Amino acid sequence: LLAPTEMSSPSLKTGAYILIGVGALTMLMGFLGCLGAVNEIRCLLGLYFTCLMIILLAQIAAALVIYFQKETLKVELSGIVVNLIENYDPLDEDKRNLQDAWDYVQTQIACCGWTGPKEWENNEILRNKSNTEYPCSCSNRSKDLMEGRGFCSLEDPLNGTATYADWPVHEQGCMDGVEEWLKDNLGIILGVCTGVAVIELLGMILSISLCKNIHSEDYTKVPKS
């Protein structure tokens, strides 16, 4: 079985930690922004502006890392998926969530394996059964997809043995399927990212405006000597 460290990679771990940090910072930022706006506290508004700027810069940095390190990330992700396929076991509750996530990917994208269904021949359980079973989430038959996870049996395996070519599964690998999905939805993804960036910029502008208004009000309240 795979150790927990084998199911991850330095790049993916770093990305996960960045997302956790950004999420925590966003919650803190929202609280500070509301508190500063309601009570007209300049220091909190300034902190709100700083947090927004850090988040925006982190998003830009993450986008640059993904763009320039995409080949490295692809290799690392490939290793993770191949290990998952080779050690896939429907009865292993410890890896249930990860396996269900991969089944969902194969079902939704209509793909099988990372580069193709042949990778599933290396699964220990399927090898022990002479490949007379196949992953249900790879199937191109609706009755198998109703199962959604685990392995389905061939109806009439030849001489009690089979290969991936005998399976009623999708021939496209999920790597190509994911890339096609990203290309098809690139406009939506860029639109959402741009919208989020615009909202963050508006928040920064509004926080600066409030700070200036508060400063002006404080200045007018100062008694002239």
TrEMBL record:
Protein name per the record: Tetraspanin
InterPro entries per UniProt: Tetraspanin/Peripherin, Tetraspanin_animals, Tetraspanin_CS, Tetraspanin_EC2_sf
Main location: membrane
Stored CDD domains: CD37_CD82_like_LEL
Coiled coil: none
Database matches in Gene3D superfamilies: Tetraspanin (1.10.1450.10)
UniProt similarity note: Belongs to the tetraspanin (TM4SF) family.
Keyword Transmembrane helix: yes
GO CC annotation, single: plasma membrane
Topological relation to the membrane, as annotated: Multi-pass membrane protein
Swiss-Prot/TrEMBL keywords: Membrane, Transmembrane, Transmembrane helix
UniProt key word GTP-binding: no
Spans through the membrane: 16-38, 45-68, 188-211
Cell location: Membrane
Superkingdom of origin: Eukaryota
